[in-house]
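Structure (tokenized):
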């Protein structure tokens, strides 16, 4: 059955809208936590239990400064306990900025006539992909506006093109997508091209606000968007990413909306979303929103900690929208993936570093202009293991994230060694001598730590093979 987005009505039982604003406000208004309750909820999360809406509201409503510190400390502990020191790196690649929607926060919206409209052709896409491979990237997210030109066939073709690029020792091994919602056949078509995660952000879970900021185009249909990833699931895409654009409405409501979305997936599809994104609104051409709900740095750090505790098994993505000092801080509270060397200008990677921040050339302003190599240096110096790993997805260990947590010892046996192998590839092919030295020191130290619990001969053999020129080795 093909649904038409303009006239879309929720068709079947499983795809019912699952956001009840009164219920969410009920939790925000009625839950009055005491110290002990807050500590119990933090402990439940440290025992790796996904929190209910009520429990999440306990954390949201704990506004005593000492309790907020305890929540942050809990998030930090959980991150160390569950995720270890790996940070996965990726880059966004904007394929086209044509758009028929009018989202009041977005530079690409149809009414912005001054924005230069570009859709990369095959050759341009290849050139951009090569530029990203030259930085050392292995994982990309392709980004598109919402436009009839960007059909499921078009998206599949662009995915094929990117996967087809082999350049020196490198290639892109995982392509994720951030694009408009499709119907089930459309999602099915895109799945066939071998994508990783399909991301769609609800932007705001609060319907009246949603209607206020989405003034035209297909995206104005709240239900079509809310149930979009259900259609992806029905089409066989079980690897999905959700998100809210913080600053459109009360952050407490959005956090509970995200948690509600997670438990909807768990209840209906038996698997939560792979990732959560929590972009904060940044300056954009003709940005036109009510500033009342903009989120302060303090609130942002707090909400990331709460989300970490609320959904211990969901990957959390933080992008270059945030300045480096916020990124560095928030990394400790539970972020598992970041972008590096980001450039939002269409065709911008092959032109070099993005310093201009010309609002007519990107969707919004970014605040972290560090190159991938600068970010790698910082991560290594701070003891994180930067990872470009794509092993689970390539081996068909689907629901890669699910495996990490459902199989005891999986992270130590697979994720950490694979992170080191991809780091070694980076050090061999893209790093300066200094980074190489620091990176191999880090690898040696992490292997010593692993040795206390498991055999590491095979890992050391594989690292030696990478040093002698082999690539794409994993467990
Ligand atoms: N056109 C697709 C869509 O709307 O789903 C792709 C989305 S867009 C290219 C990626 C995300 O950027 C949006 O979902 C939105 O959350 C975010 N975004 C848009 N304008 C933004 C702004 N001014 N600041 C920060 N993030 C923004
Ligand atoms: Fe278009 Fe997406 Fe921007 Fe909305 S957020 S105007 S749909 S590109």
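Design, position by position:
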């Amino acid at each position: 059955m093909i649904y038409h987005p303009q006239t879309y009505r929720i068709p079947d039982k499983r795809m019912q809208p699952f956001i009840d604003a009164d219920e969410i406000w009920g939790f925000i208004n009625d839950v009055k936590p005491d110290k002990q309750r807050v500590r119990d909820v933090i402990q439940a999360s440290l025992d790796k239990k996904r929190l209910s809406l009520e429990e999440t509201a306990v954390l949201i409503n704990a506004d005593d400064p000492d309790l907020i510190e305890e929540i942050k400390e809990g998030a930090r502990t959980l991150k160390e306990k569950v995720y270890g020191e790996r940070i996965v790196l990726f880059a966004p690649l904007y394929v086209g900025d044509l758009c028929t929607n009018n989202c009041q926060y977005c530079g690409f919206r149809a009414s912005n006539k001054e924005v230069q409209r570009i859709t990369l052709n095959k050759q341009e896409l290849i050139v951009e992909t090569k530029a990203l491979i030259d930085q050392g990237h292995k994982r990309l997210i392709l980004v598109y506006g919402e436009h009839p030109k960007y059909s499921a066939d078009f998206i599949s073709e662009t995915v094929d093109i990117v996967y087809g690029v082999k350049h020196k020792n490198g290639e892109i091994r995982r392509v994720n997508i951030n694009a408009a919602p499709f119907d089930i056949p459309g999602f099915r078509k895109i799945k066939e091209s071998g994508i990783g995660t399909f991301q769609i952000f609800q932007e705001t879970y609060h319907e009246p606000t949603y209607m206020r900021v989405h003034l035209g185009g297909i995206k104005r249909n709240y239900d079509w968007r809310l149930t979009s990833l259900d259609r992806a699931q029905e089409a066989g895409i079980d690897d999905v990413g959700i998100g809210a654009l913080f600053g459109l409405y009360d952050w407490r409501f959005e956090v509970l909306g995200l948690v509600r979305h997670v438990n909807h997936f768990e209840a209906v599809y038996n698997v939560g979303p792979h990732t959560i994104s929590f972009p904060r609104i940044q300056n954009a051409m003709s940005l036109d929103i009510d500033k009342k709900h903009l989120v302060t740095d303090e609130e942002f750090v707090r909400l990331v900690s709460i989300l970490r505790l609320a959904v211990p098994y969901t990957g959390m993505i933080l992008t270059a929208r945030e300045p480096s000092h916020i990124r560095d801080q928030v990394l400790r509270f539970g972020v598992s993936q970041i972008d590096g060397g980001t450039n939002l200008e269409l065709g911008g990677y092959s032109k070099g570093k993005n310093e201009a921040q010309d609002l007519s050339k990107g969707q919004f302003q970014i605040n972290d202009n560090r190159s991938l190599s600068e970010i790698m240096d910082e991560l290594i110096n701070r003891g994180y293991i930067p990872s470009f790993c794509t092993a689970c997805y390539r081996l068909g260990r689907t629901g890669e994230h699910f495996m990490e947590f459902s199989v005891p010892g999986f992270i130590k046996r697979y994720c950490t060694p694979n992170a080191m192998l991809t780091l070694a590839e980076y050090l061999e092919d893209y790093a300066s001598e200094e980074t190489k030295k620091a990176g191999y020191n880090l690898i040696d130290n992490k292997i010593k730590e692993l040795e206390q619990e498991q055999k590491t001969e095979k890992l050391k053999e594989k690292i030696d093979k990478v040093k002698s020129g082999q690539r794409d080795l994993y467990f």
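Reviewer-requested clarification: Residues 99, 101, 103, 106, 108-109, 145-146, 219 surround iron/sulfur cluster (ligand 2) (CB under 6 Å). The first strand starts at residue 86 and ends at 96.
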